[in-house]
Write a structure and sequence with these properties.
homodimer; alpha/beta; five-stranded parallel β-sheet; five-stranded mixed β-sheet
Chain lengths: ~260, ~260
C-alpha cells in the first residue's frame, strides 16, 4: 500500500453494526465492546443504549427513537461519509431483523464509487432465538426456521405460506415479533397454520425479555401458546413432531 | 431455602454447555468465559480446546476425539453427578447441531428424581450462520431456515423435503455441514433442489473457517456454489429471490 493510500484509509469513515445480544452485558462479546470503544459516535434506540450505559462514554452517544430505522441508517451513513467512526448498536444480532438491513439497502443504492468511501462492518451478537433456546434446553438442535410474524415488510399471505411450508416439512420454528399493539391477532393465526401439521401437545417455549430483570421464559404447548403474555420482543419456539418436554426443558432429539 | 437445602445445592454437580462462537476469542462472551473459569473440568474436542488454550488452566482440560459426542455427553454427565462442575465446550452455539442435543437426550432418559441431582445450563454462543452472515452483509435480514446436509441423523429424503419446502416459500437458507469425506455429493444434490425454485444467479455466500487464520468467505451464485471448496465446517447461505449481490456484499432486503 502506498503512503498516500494508507493516509487516505486513516481518514476514511467507518460504520460498524454492533449486535449487543439479548440484554445482559455478560452476553456482549469483546469484539462488540471493541467496536464501541473505537467509535467516535454510538447510535441506537434508547433501550439498547441503556444496556451499555456503564460501558461507554455517554458524550459519544446519540439516541434515536424506536421504529425510525431508516432515519438511523441514513444519519449513521452520513456521519461515516464525513469521516467519523460510527457504531450502530442493536439488540441481539444486527443482521437478524435489525439495522443491518436498512444500512445495506442504502449501500446497495449508492453509486459504486461512493461505496469505497466508507468501511462497513458487522459484529455479530447472540440472537434472541439462540438465547431463548439456551434457557429451555435444546429445542433448536435440529433443522429450524426463523420467521417474523410482523407484516410490516412481508405480506401476511407470504408469512402464512412460510409457516405452512416449514411446519409441513416438520422443522422447528422460531417466531420473532409474534405481536404488537398494531397486530394483536397474528400469533393466533400462526397457531392455526401450525396446527394443520402438529398436534396441540407440541412443546412450545415462550421467551420474553430473556436475561433482563423482567425475564419470563415458559415451556407450554402449541394449543395453549397464545395464552401466555407475548409482545414485539418475545421469541416463541415451536418444536417439531419429535420435540419433547421434560420437567422444565424443551428437547429436540438429533435423530429423526 | 433451609440451610440444609442450601448446603445440598453447594455440593450439587453442575453441567454447563458453553458455546465458544466461531473461533476468534474476540467472539467468546463474558458469560462463556465465566462458565470456563468456574468449572472443575473442561471437556471438549481438541480444536475447541485449542481455541481457549490461553484462557484456561490446562490441568482442568479433558480432550475427547471428534465424533464421540455420545461418549463426551455420558462422561460429562457422570462427572457432574459425582458433584463436579463440568463445562462442555463447543464451537458456535452448543444448541445448534452440537453437544446440547446428546446431553439433553440423556437427561430425557434419566429417572425424574435423578434429574434434580445435577444443575444443567447452556451458555449461548455466536453461531456459524450469524458469523458468516456478518462477514458478507445482511443475507439473513429476513425469514430464513437453517438446514444440515448431514444424513447421519436425518434421512436424505427428509432433508430434501425441507430444502424444497423452504425454497418453495422463498426463504433464505443457511446450510450446515454441506459435505464431509463420507458424503461428497450432498451439496450438488441440494443445489438441484434449490434450483427448482431459484435462478442460478441467486447470490450465495460460502464461509469456511470464518474468523480463523485460514478463513475464506466468498459471495458466489447458486449455479456455481459447488465449485468453491467446502467441508464439514463450512456454512453456505443461499439468498431468496430478492437477495442481491453488491460489490462483495450479499444483501437481503426487508421488504418482500
Amino acid at each position: 500500500m502506498s503512503p498516500d493510500q494508507s493516509a487516505q484509509d486513516e481518514l476514511k469513515g467507518k460504520l460498524t453494526l454492533v449486535g449487543l445480544g439479548p440484554g445482559d452485558v455478560k452476553h456482549i462479546t469483546p469484539a462488540a465492546l471493541d467496536a464501541l470503544t473505537d467509535a467516535d459516535v454510538i447510535i441506537g434506540y434508547g433501550a439498547y443504549l441503556q444496556q451499555i450505559a456503564e460501558l461507554v462514554d455517554q458524550t459519544r452517544v446519540q439516541e434515536f427513537p424506536m421504529g425510525k430505522e431508516q432515519e438511523r441508517a441514513l444519519e449513521s451513513l452520513r456521519l461515516a461519509l464525513e469521516g467519523m467512526k460510527v457504531a450502530v448498536v442493536t439488540g441481539g444480532d444486527a443482521g437478524i431483523y435489525d439495522m443491518a438491513a436498512p444500512v445495506f439497502e442504502l449501500i446497495a443504492e449508492m453509486e459504486p464509487d461512493d461505496r469505497s468511501l466508507v468501511d462497513v462492518a458487522v459484529v455479530p451478537g447472540i440472537t434472541a432465538a439462540n438465547m431463548a433456546a439456551s434457557i429451555v434446553g435444546s429445542p433448536l438442535a435440529q433443522d429450524h426456521a426463523v420467521i417474523s410474524l410482523s407484516d410490516r415488510f412481508v405480506p401476511w399471505e407470504q408469512i402464512e405460506k412460510r409457516l405452512d411450508a416449514v411446519a409441513g416439512a416438520d422443522m422447528v420454528v422460531a417466531l420473532y415479533e409474534p405481536s404488537s399493539r398494531h397486530r394483536p391477532g397474528q400469533l393466533g393465526k400462526a397457531q392455526e397454520v401450525l396446527l394443520r401439521h402438529r398436534t396441540s401437545e407440541t412443546p412450545v417455549a415462550v421467551a420474553r425479555e430473556a436475561t433482563r430483570a423482567d425475564e419470563s421464559v415458559d415451556v407450554t404447548i402449541l394449543g395453549q401458546m397464545t395464552e401466555l403474555a407475548h409482545d414485539k420482543r418475545t421469541v416463541i419456539i415451536v418444536g417439531n413432531s419429535k420435540t419433547v418436554s421434560v420437567t422444565d426443558w424443551m428437547i429436540t432429539p438429533r435423530a429423526y
